[in-house]
Amino acid sequence: MKNNNEVNIELTNSKYPKFNSSVSVNDMCEQLISLSPGVYFFHDIRGIHYIGETSNLKSRFLSHVKKEKNKKLKKELSNAFGEMKFSWVKTKSKMDALIYQKKWIRLFKPKCNEIFYNN
């Protein structure tokens, strides 16, 4: 079992995320989601649609699926190709999550985050 320090070392050695875990959005498996800070991804077989950061992964997942305000993401969540997944990478802090979120948004260019890389 890895501690948070080992996860963060893996993050810095690769430009691609290594997910700690994933759940199906439709199955509402929020009890399986960590309470830790981290970076999260909404994705299906087409690729990554949205990348976010938070201080509490479980809380942020619930806010997305219950009251989504991002119209593009809401559309993608309701029109998934195959299974829509919520995956995450735990970080030591919200600040670390923000750093990795920006890095991965620039790398993957998810269409529901385009405000971050089109400016």
CATH topology of the domain at 35-117: GIY-YIG endonuclease
Number of helical regions: 5
The main sheet orders its strands as 1-4-2-3
Major sheet characteristics: 4 strands, antiparallel
Cα separation of the termini: 40 Å
Fraction of residues in β-strands: 15-25%
Radius of gyration from CA coordinates: 13 Å
Spell the H/E element sequence. Answer: HEEEHHEHH
Number of DSSP E strands: 4
CATH architecture of the domain at 35-117: 3-Layer(aba) Sandwich
SS content category: alpha+beta
Q: What is the CATH top level name of the domain at 35-117?
A: Alpha Beta
* Uncertain regions spanning at least 5 consecutive residues: 1-10
Q: Roughly what is the average pLDDT, rounded to an integer?
A: 85
Helix content bin = 40-55%
Morphology call: globular
Briefly say what this structure is.
The chain is α+β, with helices and mostly antiparallel strands and 119 residues long.
Please provide a written account of the structure.
With 119 residues, the protein is of the alpha+beta class. The protein has a domain at 35-117: GIY-YIG endonuclease, CATH 3.40.1440.10. It is built from 5 helices and 4 strands, in the order αβββααβαα. The chain has helices at residues 4-13, 57-67, 71-78, 94-108, 114-117; strands spanning 21-24, 38-44, 47-54, 85-90. The longest helix is centred in the last third of the chain and has 15 residues, at 94-108.
